[in-house]
Amino acid sequence: MKIRSKARLAAALMLGTMVLIATSIGWADAQVRAAVEQRRQSTTIADALNDMRMVTFEYLLNRRERARLQEQAVWQRLERLFSASVDIRGSSARTLADLRTQTEASHRLFAEVDPTLDRGGGDEIQRRFETQLSSRLLILQQQSLVDAARLIDDSDRLIDATQRRVVFWTVAGLAMMALVTATAAWFFRRDVMDPVARLEGATREVASGNWDFELDVGTQDEFGEMARHFDAMTRALRDSFQQLELSNRELSSLNKELESFSYSVSHDLRSPLRSMDGFSLALIEDYGDKLDEEALDYLHRIRSASQRMGRLIDELLGLARVTRAELRVHDVDLTSMAREMATSIQKTQPERSVRWEIDDGVVVRADRDLIQIALQNLLDNAWKFTSKTAEAVIRVGAKREGADQVCFVADNGAGFDMAYADRLFGAFQRLHHEDDYPGTGIGLAIVQRVFRRHGWPVWAKASLGGGASFFFRTLEPTDERREQGHLAG
Amino acid sequence: MSIPNSTSSKLKRRSVWVIGAAALAALSSLTWRRPAEPARLVPLRIALPQVPHAGLLHIAAGREYFKAHGLGVTLLPQIHGKAALAELLAGRADVAAAADVPIVVEVLKGAPLGIATTLANAPDEMAVVARRDRGIHSSTDLQGRRVGVTFGTSGDYFLWAYMVRHRLAAQSLTLVDLPPNQLIEALGDGSVDAIAAWQPVRHGAESALGDAAASFAAPDAYAQTFNLVGSSDFLRSHGDVVHRVVLALLDAERYVRAEPLQAKRLLAARLGIEPYALDPAWQSISLELGQRQAQLVTLEDVSSWAMTRGYAPVQPVPNFLSHIYLDALMAATPERVTVVR
Question: Domain residues of chain B, as ranges?
Fold first, then answer.
């Protein structure tokens, strides 16, 4: 049976028991009320009977008219009481019927009592009749009082019995509730707590690296299903990790190949380039006077091309280093870094008039070397694309957006068309002609890689001729983001 | 050698089951055990008339309630209570069942009798059954008539009370002493004009005469009680026996209340009459144990009558309280005792 069904059953049993107790109490309350009412009626009847007995014997002794009238009044009162006592049932009803018969007989006999008192003398028959009448009245009224007392006793017994019944049903109900609670607790421990403990143990095992651990629960309830899902999940994770390990090994192998390739690029490809550049220079220097203008132009072009290829190789190696370098996160004073770079850049072209606006106190938690590469690229770009702007302004700063800090590098240079923004961070992608703004098209790709390694989003806003702004949101670096950045980078 | 853990726990579990089952069995044997029958039943001789008034005694015997309470009862059937009382006084019975009238007569004669309990009340059971063809249509028509009655019985007292109730002189009647089993016959053959009788004789007479019968009841004249009586010495010295008798009679009373039809059939069978013939008595007699204060008044009235009728020497009305034995009924069901004490 499912735990849910068991819980419903237990709840239904508890509810049923409570309803039983409530019904019992309600029923008992009605019974006690009826018994109390019966007792009240019986007591009132007994009081009236006492009154009747008193005035009857007053009348028998003295034949006072007042006593006769009082007997009439009591009789009428008793008639009303008997008529009102309609709710009395069982043996009490029989007693009440007897009581009514006796009282009627008593009243009837009372009416036969001679209103004149015969004190001695008179005939024997009348004397005997009077004696018999008195005896019968005495007997009837004694019996009536006994019956009235019995009615009161019956009411008391009924109250006692009802109270005992209430106690019994309440105790039985409580015992039932205790039994249900104990059973539910036992089932809860067996079906919920024990499986939770096993599940907790299993998660601890898996967390400690035991991917072969399986719960292997055979029950058909919710925990059985959960355990089977858990086992399926650990199996799937085990398979995934095996696959991941395989992929990592392949990736590691590829990285080694890439390193080897990088080595080849940096050393093997650079040597012929250096030769081409060097021998071209030697030809110009040693045989320049023997070569015509066209030949010299060719040699200069060879030298320019080989130098450009060298820069491309350097940039590519730089991109590869950014991707592979290990992150060492510290507080980095972006303001100081930007100011140093601005001074350095300004020195390369002192004739240019550029206004640098660098905010104070911009600090980020990042890898200093990588962030330096990214910032250098952004500032180089800004310097380059403001080269044709009359009053160039380059701004570096940060602003708060909620809990995050958004840093930016902005300029009022050439800008670009936002329609091509998706190509902005691709390697070797250029949005301007090289003759206008020379470059390899690697710089922004490196910037994006650096920020991605940190797990920081980077985006740009620009307009053609209206300058460009590059933003990056400096989130606190986490292992997960770094991992994602690393894997993606 | 040590027992393996699993085996040990199984043994323990089994032991718990065995002990539990044994406890349950012991408990059920305690709960369901019938009252143990004593090895030897206490003998008791009860003289009783073959009348419905002694119904509880007949039913208790028929249902073996006496035996269940350790009594080996021998019933000694008689034609009326007076005869049963004679058996008691002659020492041939330990207790007897009789109406209040013969008991009072014997007490007045000096018999040391005690009433252990009332067995039945019959406030409206007796009647004067007369022949209409003799011109008897009302109570006054009875004057000067021959009326059959069993002297010294409750029928005798009823007739006297009836006459008083109607302010008639009892001396105006010519009383004919007849045993109960001859009353119907005497009325039928005309040797008497009327009879005073209790049930089922009254019903028999009414049936025999049919429309020719005129019945005159007097519920306000006399409420008869039927009693279990014994010698005062016996009641005092055999309190335990009397207590058991009372318990058996209370069982019979409960049976009558719970199974009235079965009880009536059983009683009719023991009286040797058809159940329908028992109906009038069954409806007018209340089979119920008790010791009522009101009974003392009746006993005293009956004693005055008995002295007037000459059944006993004239003397002061005795204190009947000393002839009422309350202990047995008080011990069994005290709420039935309303005698002021």
Answer: 42-122+223-336, 127-217
Domain range summary for chain A, segments of one domain joined by +? 3-186, 211-324, 329-488
Residue owning tokens 């009655």? B149
Best of B167, B304, B308 to disrupt the A interface by mutation (most A CBs within 10 Å)? B167
Q: What dotted CATH number matches A329-488?
A: 3.30.565.10
> What fold does the segment set B127-217 form as a domain?
D-Maltodextrin-Binding Protein; domain 2 (3.40.190)
Q: What is the pLDDT along chain A (489 residues), one digit of tens a residue?
A: 777 787 788 788 888 878 887 887 788 788 788 888 888 888 898 899 999 998 998 898 888 888 899 999 999 999 998 888 656 667 788 888 888 999 999 999 999 888 887 665 567 888 888 888 888 898 888 888 888 888 888 888 888 888 888 788 878 888 888 888 888 888 888 877 888 888 888 888 888 888 788 877 777 788 788 888 888 888 888 888 889 999 989 988 887 787 777 777 667 777 888 888 899 999 999 998 888 989 999 999 999 888 888 877 877 777 777 777 778 888 999 999 999 999 999 999 889 989 999 999 999 999 898 899 999 999 998 999 998 888 999 999 999 888 789 999 999 998 888 888 888 887 777 777 777 787 777 888 889 888 888 888 999 999 988 899 999 998 765 554 554 444 433
Same fold? B42-122+223-336, B127-217: yes
Instruction: Provide residues of B within 8 Å CB-CB of chain A.
Output: 161, 164-165, 167-169, 219-221, 223, 292-294, 297-298, 301, 304, 335, 338
Torsion of the alpha carbons at A249, A255, A261 and A265, rounded to the nearest 10: -170
Closest CB from B292, B301, B335 relative to A135: B301
In CATH, the architecture of B42-122+223-336 is 3-Layer(aba) Sandwich (3.40)
Contact status, residue B245 vs residue B66, Cβ threshold 8 Å: yes
CATH 1.20.120.1730: does it fit domain A3-186?
yes
Whether B298 sits inside 8 A of A146 (CB atoms) is no
The 3-state DSSP composition of chain A as helix, strand, coil percent (nearest 5) reads: 70, 10, 20
How far apart CA B103 and CA B224 sit, in angstroms, is: 12
3-state secondary structure of A439: coil
Which pTM does this prediction carry?
Answer: 0.59
**Cβ pair A415, A468 in contact under 8 A:** yes
Contact yes or no for B335 and A105 at CB 8 A: no
Tell which of A99, A104, A139, A150 to mutate to test the B interface (max B CBs under 10 Å).
Answer: A139
